[in-house]
Amino acid sequence: MVNKIVLGCYFLLATSFFVFFSIFYKYHLFFVEQLSVFLFDYDYFVNQVNDLGGVCIYLGNFLIQFFCIDYLAGVILLFLIFAISLLLQMLGRTYNCWALLPILFFSFLIIKVEMNLGLIVSILLSLFFSYIYKKYILRKAEYICFLFVLSFIPILFFCLGLSAFIFLFFVLFIGRKKKYAVLMSFCCLVETMLVVGCICTFFKVDFFDWLNCSKFQVYNLFYLAFIYIYILFYLIIQNSNIFLKRKVHWIINVAFPLFIFLGVGIVFGGKINFLDEKLYKCEYLMRKQKWDDLLSIHSDQEVITSYINIGLLSRGNISERLFCYPQNENVNEFWSSEYLPLSLMGELYYRLNMFGAARAYFFMAQTQSLRGYTPFTLMRLAELEYKRGNFKSSFKFLSVLKKTFFYKKWAKSFEEDFLLNEEIKDRYVKECSDLFVGKNLLENLCIMLNTGYNISSNKNIIEMALVKCMLKNNHSLFFDILNKHSVSLGKVYQEYILMYAYMKNDVCLIDKWDINKSIIKDFYEYVSINQSNVSKSEKYSLLEKKYKDTYWFYSQFK
Amino acid sequence: MLKIVSLLLYLLFLGSCAYNEKIEYTIVQEYPDIFPDLIDVTIPYEIAPLNFKLVNSDNRIKVVIVNQQSDSIIVTGIKGYIDIPFYDWSSFLSSSKGDTLFVKVVECSESCNKLYRPFHMYVSNDSIDKNLVYRLIEPTYAHWNEIKIVQRDISSFEEKTFLSNRETNNNCMNCHTFNDNRPDEFLIHFRKNNAGTILVRNNKVVKLNTQSQNTISHFVYPCWHPSGKIIAFSTNLTHMSFFANNPRLLEVYDTSSDIILYNIESNEIFTSPLIASSDKMETFPIFSPLGDKLYFCICDQPRVMPRDFRSIRYKLVAIDYNPATHVLGNKIQYVIDLDSVGMGISLPSISPDGRYILCSKASCGCFFSWSPDSDLCLFDLQKNAFLDVDRWNSDFADSFSAWSSNSRWVIFSSRRIDGLYSYPYIAHIDSCGKVGRPFLLPQKDVDYYNKTFKSFNMPKLIKGAIQISPKDIYKVVCCKEDYCVQFDEKSYKPVNNGIMMEHSNVN
Question: Are the CB atoms for B415 and B400 separated by under 8 Å?
Answer without folding.
Answer: no
